[in-house]
Amino acid sequence: MPANTTGSSPKKKKSRRLRLIVIAVVLLLVGGVGYGAYWSISTVRASFPETTGSLQLKGLSGPVQVKRDGYGIPQIYAGTSEDLFRAQGFVQAQDRFWEMDVRRHMTAGRLSEMFGSGQVETDAFLRTMGWHRVAKQEYDTKVSPATKKYLRAYSDGVNAYLKDHQGDALSVEYAALDFKNDGYKPEKWTPVDSLAWLKAMAWDLRGNMQDEVDRALASSRLSAKQIDELYPSYPYSRNKPIVQGGGVNELTDEFDPKATPAGSTSGTGGTADGGATGAGQGLQSQLSSLSKTLDDVPALLGPNGTGIGSNSWVVSGKYTTTGKPLLANDPHLAPQLPSVWYQMGLHCKQVTSACPYDAAGFTFAGLPGVVIGHNQDISWGMTNLGADVSDLYLEKVTDNGYLYDGKQLPFTTREETIKVAGGKSRTITVRTTNNGPIVSDRDDELTSVGKNAPVGSGADDVAPDRGDGYAVALKWTALTPSNTMDAVFKLNTAKNFSDFRKAARDFAVPSQNLIYADTKGNIGYQAPGQIPVRSRGDGRYPAPGWDSRYKWSKYIPQSALPWELNPDRGYIVTANQAVVDKKDYPYLLTDDWAYGARSQRITDLIESKTKDGGKISTDDMQSLQMDNSSEIAKVLTPYLLKIDVKDDYVRQAQKLLESWDYTQDSDSAAAAYFNAVWRNTLKLAFGDKLPKELRVKGSA
């Protein structure tokens, strides 16, 4: 008979232990997840801006109010200008300091200090151009005393916020950065950090430099005639320029919008030589040479793929339901998160000469003032003018110098040390010629330009032996110190068109189309900017840097830049199209305009709305902004419908085009089919005919 047992069996004990282990693991996991969620939420919330209550901000001369609407958009009210911009710096640091910090590291060529070795080459290229160095020169020598005062006040506000907020309390991204770059601490904000961001914007909006590169690369496989076909001339007769008429007085060198133009002497601002003729917006706009079958297809599109292409228009009160001008502006730069734009208002409690600001609109995080917006008297908008403000120069170099007018000159050199988070610092030598920094030292594509670009076209051009390839230098107006920041503050306080034009004179870089309306019923336009006049060549191909005949002789006089006030047609449209008819203007702005599809579409819609006494409302303006009709589809669809498609499935898709209204709604099957056909048509038409760097992606 077996003995009695009072204890549990070994099997039961093991099962109990397993249950306890499982329970413990589950509790640990739940606790870990709970703690992780708590840490994540608390870390995120720690960096949220304080939007209620009172804060003490050192340096203020009086109380400042910050009111935010339901979307968090701040309106700042202060008793003095300095208090206003000090508070603006504080508020923008609350909302966007991570963005500001990354931007200033980019413009200074110091991204590697934050993100490590993967950014070294980017930093080397940016250090070679020297944006931050130029911004410092602007602060030291160009901007007005008032602008310096406001920049310092803005910086004080940013730094007041930094003083009490570090790490994840400053922005949640710093908590993530700690995993890669433990111990990183942001430096104090400086006025130069603000000015340097204007260089980044100028780079994004610099005009035709990529087209210049593309032409040079294409010349390795295509003839000059073929390249011309890829860059068809602007269709002035079909898509109207911004300023429709006027001319430059030959005696005074002043533009008169009412004058009857005498005609351009050269159309280039210099001589008529310098490479193949024609204009356009790059190899991304290949329309005219699609195939012989589509000879009638006009060049309608501007640049594709970059996302940059702004629209603005203003309509006189005689054509609006309110009897007052209506101005619309959508500067759709390349998409970013957060947006490159920052909406806010800046208001002096009592507007006086000592505190003249009462403006609202959009600016950039890191920049004081309002860039696009309105005050109590005027409103203004901007689109990219696209002026040709940069040239690439081919340079015949040796180890120690470069050739210039038959003489060997020494480089101007400087050393730049790039600090690398988690790695060794790297030192580079920047070489500079009379024309600018040697950028091909930092960029493989530009090295290819030096190997392939044609050299001049004049009968007396003599090129030195290319050898393994020329070096490439960059001459660009943004690398010359200017006082563009003064223009921002002047626009904010302008009271009339005269003030507006005076502000525009300081808007050197980037060159923009400035559009205008005021409470007295006026509408207007001004083309500003430092735009070079070339002694020789037209800027469409790299120029021979060893020949001083190809240097810039001057800038187009401010008085000669196109403008107009209250045109008879009753509206002004700017959408990156040509500013003025080339045959009527003696200076070269650029030959690489957007082709005017957007501007003409806006013009057509305005004219259809105002036909037979019709009036335009604010709802109409908003509807116009949301218009998504495809102009290229209107041209190509009739050809696509003529194709005899054998495949039943594809034929069903083709039939979608029969009733299509050419709108590009996100759920439009016809739009999806058209864009797929367009993309593949481009690929089939060009295939391997272009150099590999320029293979068509097929954007539409």
Textual characterization of the structure:
By secondary structure, the chain is α+β, with helices and mostly antiparallel strands. Among the domains are: 65-204, Penicillin Amidohydrolase, domain 1; 391-475, Aminohydrolase, N-terminal nucleophile (Ntn) domain, beta-sheet knob region (Penicillin G acylase, beta-roll domain). It contains 18 helices and 23 strands. The chain has a nine-stranded mixed β-sheet with strand order 1-2-7-8-9-10-17-18-22, with helices on one face. The protein has a three-stranded antiparallel β-sheet with strand order 6-5-23, with helices on one face. Strands 16-11-20 form a three-stranded mixed β-sheet, covered by helices on one side. The protein is globular, with a radius of gyration of 30 Å. The model is unreliable at 265-307 (pLDDT under 50). The active site is at 310 (nucleophile). Its cofactor is Ca(2+). Keywords: Calcium, Hydrolase, Membrane, Metal-binding, Transmembrane, Transmembrane helix, Zymogen. The chain crosses the membrane at residues 20-41. Belongs to the peptidase S45 family.
What are the SSEs and their pairings?
Blueprint: H1 10-46, E1 65-68, E2 74-78, H2 81-107, H3 111-115, H4 120-129, H5 131-141, H6 145-164, H7 172-177, H8 191-204, H9 209-218, H10 224-230, E3 247-248, E4 255-256, E5 311-315, E6 326-330, E7 342-348, E8 358-363, E9 372-374, E10 378-384, E11 390-395, E12 401-404, E13 407-410, E14 412-418, E15 426-432, H11 444-452, E16 471-476, H12 484-493, H13 497-505, E17 512-518, E18 523-526, E19 532-534, E20 543-544, E21 552-555, E22 563-565, E23 571-574, H14 597-610, H15 618-625, H16 631-642, H17 648-655, H18 669-686
Parallel strand pairs: 2-7, 11-20
Antiparallel strand pairs: 1-2, 3-4, 5-6, 5-23, 7-8, 8-9, 9-10, 10-17, 11-16, 12-13, 14-15, 17-18, 18-22, 19-21
Region (Disordered): 245-287
InterPro entries: Ntn_hydrolases_N, Pen/GL7ACA/AHL_acylase, Penicillin_amidase_dom1, Penicillin_amidase_N_B-knob, S45
Family: Belongs to the peptidase S45 family.
